[in-house]
Amino acid sequence: MKLAKFMLSMMMFAATLSTHSAPLVRYFELTTEPSQQAAFDAVGVHNLSTSIETENGTLAMYALKHSEQPNLNYVFEIYQDEAAYQTHAQSPQFKQFVEVAKTAVVGRKVVETDPQFLAEKAEPLRITQNQLKVNFAEVQVKPEWNAQFKAVVLDEMQQSLAKEPGVFAMYAVTLKNQPNEWRFFEIYADENAYSAHRASEHFQYYLTATEKMVADKNVISLQGGTLMNKGGMHFLAK
């Protein structure tokens, strides 16, 4: 009975996201003082885990490191709306994080986005010692091809979530006021799941179909860190 109620609530949650205003999605690039990295990590785990558990409108939070630059941190956040973010910003765990960040963070970049596709498997993620495969891709699309690219990539991502058990979450956003600047955040069970994804028919079709549409592409492998979501999200921009 509890499982049935949980699945029903997730279905209602996904439907709500699909029919109402877009969630608030932003990410941060935070450079930390190496000697303060451990303190930054610890307060981040507390902030993310507490927020996901106690804030209804905080939908997903991820904090990871660049695989080749361990003091370059990427933090991805998804809120139901601006009001949900303001609730989080007033929380004691966030204020504690801010206090530590004042000395730990020496470089900060905030990126505002327009969500295009946000989807997760139904089971929530609660990971504080990440062993999953996580990629962050920056893709610049030729402006004249942007509409066609959107159609192809969003179809590919929907197929990936539906057909591949090793794909845990996929998010596609565009930068504010730069609709041809795409960003993708993807979570896989492991390297084998990622390899299987790349070999899939739908991904191979995406590569072929969009080859002439893409002006530039950069894929960043992320490691370590904290992965938290409520599970079951599904949002598709019109």
Automatic annotation (TrEMBL):
<dbReference type="InterPro" id="IPR050744">
    <property type="entry name" value="AI-2_Isomerase_LsrG"/>
</dbReference>
<dbReference type="InterPro" id="IPR007138">
    <property type="entry name" value="ABM_dom"/>
</dbReference>
<dbReference type="Pfam" id="PF03992">
    <property type="entry name" value="ABM"/>
</dbReference>
<dbReference type="InterPro" id="IPR011008">
    <property type="entry name" value="Dimeric_a/b-barrel"/>
</dbReference>
<dbReference type="GO" id="GO:0003824">
    <property type="term" value="F:catalytic activity"/>
</dbReference>
<protein>
    <recommendedName>
        <fullName>ABM domain-containing protein</fullName>
    </recommendedName>
</protein>
<feature type="domain" description="ABM">
    <location>
        <begin position="133"/>
        <end position="222"/>
    </location>
</feature>
<feature type="signal peptide">
    <location>
        <begin position="1"/>
        <end position="21"/>
    </location>
</feature>
<keyword id="KW-0732">Signal</keyword>
<feature type="domain" description="ABM">
    <location>
        <begin position="24"/>
        <end position="113"/>
    </location>
</feature>
